[in-house]
Amino acid sequence: MSLIFVLLLLLESAQGDFRAEDVIKQLNEDLNLQLNIYLNCGDVDELLPRMDMPKVIMETKADDPLPRILGRYSERSLTIACLADNQTLSGIVQLLWGLQYLPILFLLSNPKEFAFERALSQGFLHVLALNLSDGELYTYLPYPTVQIHRLEGISEYQRLTQLKNLQRHAVHITVETMAPRCFHYTDRRGRNVYAGYMYKLLHEFIRVHNGTEVAVLQDMDPIPLDTGLFMFKRGVIDMAPRIIHPLGWVAYYRSHVLFNVNGYIMVPWAEPLPKSLYIVRPFESSVWAVLIGYLLLATIIIRCMRDRTSSLAAIFLQVLQMLLQQSLSTMWHYTQGLRHVLVFLALFTVGFILSTMYQAQLSSSVTTGLYKRQINSFDDLAHTDLKMMMENFDIEFLMNHTKSGVIQPELLNIVLNKSLDEVFYHRKHLNTSYIYQAIEDRLRFELFQQRYLRVPLFKQLPEVFYQVPFFVGMRHGLPYASLFNVYLRRIWESGILLKWEGDAYFEGIFSGEISFHTFTGLQIQVFDMEFYYCTYILLALGWIISGIVFAIERLVCGRHSAAGNK
Ligand SMILES: *[C@@H]1O[C@H](CO)[C@@H](O)[C@H](O)[C@H]1NC(C)=O
Ligand SMILES: *[C@@H]1O[C@H](CO)[C@@H](O)[C@H](O)[C@H]1NC(C)=O
Ligand SMILES: *[C@@H]1O[C@H](CO)[C@@H](O)[C@H](O)[C@H]1NC(C)=O
Ligand SMILES: *[C@@H]1O[C@H](CO)[C@@H](O)[C@H](O)[C@H]1NC(C)=O
Ligand SMILES: *[C@@H]1O[C@H](CO)[C@@H](O)[C@H](O)[C@H]1NC(C)=O
Ligand SMILES: *[C@@H]1O[C@H](CO)[C@@H](O)[C@H](O)[C@H]1NC(C)=O
């Protein structure tokens, strides 16, 4: 009995007997590492004489911040710290900025309790602590509360620190209205329901990983930028379902960037032209000028060809008749000689082509409607009298962009500074008095309302206004950031995120967040009076001119005949 006890005791002590050198070697091998970073370890060669891994030796000094590994050293590195005081820990925080998932090994000889809670609060999950005096190796499980585990082998560490279950840990997210990323409505049973594709992304993450979703700052909608950033910095917000600008990654960090989203400008569709103009619109003014010139030229040529006895007016009318393919009942062309037949053929062909084209153009524009000049580019924007309704942050952003020469500075002239609420309200209701800019998902969501309009209210300019990376903003040092990244990548690669985005548009419709617009008074009546205004004017002009000519002729002839009678 006592023998077994002694044996067990021996076994126990043998299990815990880890040496720093072996642990590091084992980790380097297992994780396929390329670099060891020693922090506050003094003389490493004395501590670990036979390590052949490339190494960086650093000390924390109060006034000298440590460099970040991210973008400077290989991410395949192991951080080894020989102290566990606050200064060393904040040194590790600086060092592993954005890379909290890298392994950390503490080599401790002083008998102070090592605070794993503080490591967790900085987002470090893969932490090992080796007690140099008794050779015991510890790691911890973070949720629901920190549980310290004594390890029996390094392979166990790999398994234990794989976080998969948040164990009902509270995840704080914001739920401000940023349709279609996140919005809420009251359903038929009177419950407040949250929707939106980015909200769903976070919601599903929390559900799948057994976390508890906690909505923060629910009463602020939308959350002012300053407040949001401050709350992120203080760690009140863990993740936010919205697209944000990087802003230097000061207040928050990010998940993986999946793609870039573009910002576009939407402009009101051009106003319809008055119907009276339809009759002159099939040809441009230059074509009309050519037509009239051609008519006059043909009249003069035929007059020269003939014996000069026939009147100019009669020839003009004949040419006009031929051009409009109206038969000349009293004239037989073949009796007039070859030249006349050729002239007739030329006039007929040109007239046939022109009048057929005119009819085709006219009927197509009656079908589609005619509109004033559309705004098609940023250059056109600078010359419109419409104003672009923008919010302070976006104006500042635009100013920065025009200053750096990315965007035409003329755009600043059409900016209208309004509050965020006003911009959201008018844009959502597709108020055509203004121009708006938005990130593409929002733009698609809002323009979804004109899906069933024959003539849209707004069009999107093809030029990209700005670009922001698509990521989920996370507070610095979020322990489950890498867990979220794996999830995010899967959701994206499987196309589920796009599906959710499409669903959000329809959910926007049936929640009443947006609504389909119907067309009002857009049926074009071909036979209304307005359509013939131009014709009437022409007719009236013709009558007036012929009346005047008649009167003049009457007067002149009257005088002639009077003179003849004398
Ligand atoms: C280290 O930081 C913790 C929490 O921030 C604090 O409670 C503790 O007093 C600090 N210890 C020292 C030695 O500064
Ligand atoms: C390290 O081991 C010694 C001896 O067992 C113990 O007194 C000390 O508290 C331990 N230190 C830590 C940080 O666990
Ligand atoms: C979720 O977490 C709770 C609290 O730790 C635990 O009791 C439960 O078994 C977990 N559920 C799943 C499905 O893992
Ligand atoms: C926009 O208006 C707000 C107040 O209405 C003002 O504080 C801000 O400076 C203005 N922004 C610009 C760019 O003029
Ligand atoms: C605009 O540029 C200034 C100075 O570089 C910077 O402080 C500010 O954050 C920028 N604003 C935006 C919205 O990017
Ligand atoms: C659009 O904006 C104009 C000017 O602010 C306002 O007079 C009009 O009522 C708005 N229209 C709608 C539908 O909100």
Question: Largest beta sheet: what is the strand line-up?
Answer: 2-1-3-4-5-6-7
Present as ligands are: 2-acetamido-2-deoxy-beta-D-glucopyranose
Indicate the overall shape. elongated
How many runs of DSSP E, i.e. beta strands? 20
**CATH class category of the domain at 2-160:** Alpha Beta
Helix content, binned percent: 40-55%
Cα-to-Cα separation, first versus last residue: 165 Å
User: What proportion strand?
Assistant: 15-25%
Radius of gyration: 41 Å
Q: Quick check: average pLDDT?
A: 84
Point out poorly predicted stretches.
Answer: 1-14
What is the CATH fold-level name of the domain at 2-160?
Rossmann fold
Largest sheet: 7 strands, mixed
> Structural class, please?
alpha/beta
Question: Which architecture of the domain at 2-160 does the CATH hierarchy give at level 2?
Answer: 3-Layer(aba) Sandwich
Task: Explain what the structure shows.
The protein is an alpha/beta fold and 566 residues long. Among the domains are: 2-160, Rossmann fold (3-Layer(aba) Sandwich); 165-258 and 471-519, Periplasmic binding protein-like II (D-Maltodextrin-Binding Protein, domain 2, 3-Layer(aba) Sandwich). It is built from 18 helices and 20 strands. It has helices spanning 2-15, 20-30, 44-47, 86-95, 116-121, 154-160, 197-208, 225-234, 285-305, 312-323, 338-368, 378-382, 392-403, 420-428, 440-447, 481-493, 496-511, 533-565, and strands at 35-39, 55-58, 77-81, 104-108, 127-131, 136-141, 147-150, 170-174, 183-186, 192-195, 212-216, 239-240, 253-254, 260-268, 387-390, 415-417, 434-439, 458-460, 466-469, 473-474. The strands form 5 sheets. The chain has a 7-stranded mixed sheet with strand order 2-1-3-4-5-6-7, with helices on both faces. α4 links the parallel β3 (77-81) and β4. α9 packs across α10. Bound molecules: 2-acetamido-2-deoxy-beta-D-glucopyranose (NAG) (6 copies). Residues 392, 395, 417 line the site of one 2-acetamido-2-deoxy-beta-D-glucopyranose. This is Ionotropic receptor. Keywords: Cell membrane, Glycoprotein, Membrane, Receptor, Signal, Transmembrane, Transmembrane helix. Its main location: membrane. InterPro entries: Insect_Ionotropic_Sensory_Rcpt. One of its GO terms (cellular component) is plasma membrane.
